[in-house]
Amino acid sequence: MDIVASTADLRARVRTWRSQQDRIAFVPTMGNLHAGHLKLVRHARGIAGRVAVSIFVNPMQFGPGEDYATYPRTLEADTAALMQADADLVFVPAVDEIYPGELDGTTRVVVPGLGDILCGVFRPGFFTGVATVVTRLFNLVQPDVAVFGEKDYQQLVLIRRMARELCLPVRIEGVATEREADGLAMSSRNGYLTPTERVTAAILFHTLTEVKTAVESGALDYPTVERTAMAALTRAGFRPDYVSIRRAADLGEPAAGDTSLRVLAAAWLGSARLIDNLEITVP
Questions:
Q1: Active-site positions?
Q2: Above 90 in pLDDT, residue 162?
Q3: pLDDT tens digits for 209-262?
């Protein structure tokens, strides 16, 4: 497995792969890898001859007062895990490799509408940071397919739209959320939870399961279902940002006749902001 830090070295590896007619799958990450990330790498391994992974804590997607400086960086453990997962290359750039010059004045990629709802309300600029860094990484790696987890479902929908509208020649594949035994979606930020909070955290998944069950059983007054879920999370000790039932394809507000939905939620527990979502099929 190659570990490269410069865009020049990355491009040289990609040129070699292309000369050999290799199909390339790409998994972008911010590191501090867990089983959910490695599931994405294994999926990539199954669909392509070459697998590239990036580890880059992207400053553009962190707002003022967020955890950019303290976000866990575990490069040695990450590269060991990726070697076991049979990745071919790990790209570990410094900030100035991705953003030459001043970050504030750099070109940005904005996805209107999708970047301003749900998590975009509570983390303004976050999805511009995501879209910008993913576009740059796609341009550097030039993958045939890129693999993302469904836990970050809004991000997945946004990147699919961005790739389509910018005519990027990459297929976006989503992989089902990897969960702990009690249902908690795996996340690097779960490490911020205290032992007591970690026990409580599983209530987020169970609350969304109750929403899914209610809607699939015929509860179509979505605002009432959402308010009930918000109240349940608050009683459990969360500080919920939102619980929202949306159309799965584009995260629009569901209308009569929409049958493929997602319930999405974000809630604070202690110092950790947890997100999760579940698929809903309206009968």
A1: 37
A2: yes
A3: 999 999 999 999 999 999 999 999 999 999 999 999 999 999 999 998 999 999
**189-215 tens-digit pLDDT:** 999 999 999 999 999 999 999 999 999
CA angle 14, 18, 20 (to 5 degrees): 120
List, in sequence order, every beta strand (DSSP E) within 63-134: 89-91
CATH of 2-175, one of 2.30.180.10, 3.30.1330.60, 3.40.50.620, 3.40.50.10140: 3.40.50.620
Question: Rounded to an integer, what is the distance from CA 74 to the centroid of its chain?
Answer: 18
- Which residues lie across from 91 on neighbouring strands? 4, 54
Helix 153-165 × helix 126-141 angle, to 10°: 60
Give the residue from 141, 140, 148, 129 showing the smallest Cα distance to 44: 148
Rg (CA), the chain: 19
In sign, the C-alpha dihedral spanning 240, 277, 161, 163 is positive
Exposure letters 49-73 (e unless 16+ CB within 10 A, then b)? ebbbbbbbbbebbbeeeeeeeebee
CATH 3.30.10.20 fits 188-281, yes or no: no
Please name the residue that has the structure tokens 């400053």. Answer: 59
Arithmetic mean of pLDDT over the chain: 97
Percent of the chain with pLDDT over 90: 97
Q: Which of 184, 183, 213, 208 is nearest to 264 (CA)?
A: 208
| Residue of 222, 241, 270 whose CA lies nearest to 117 | 241
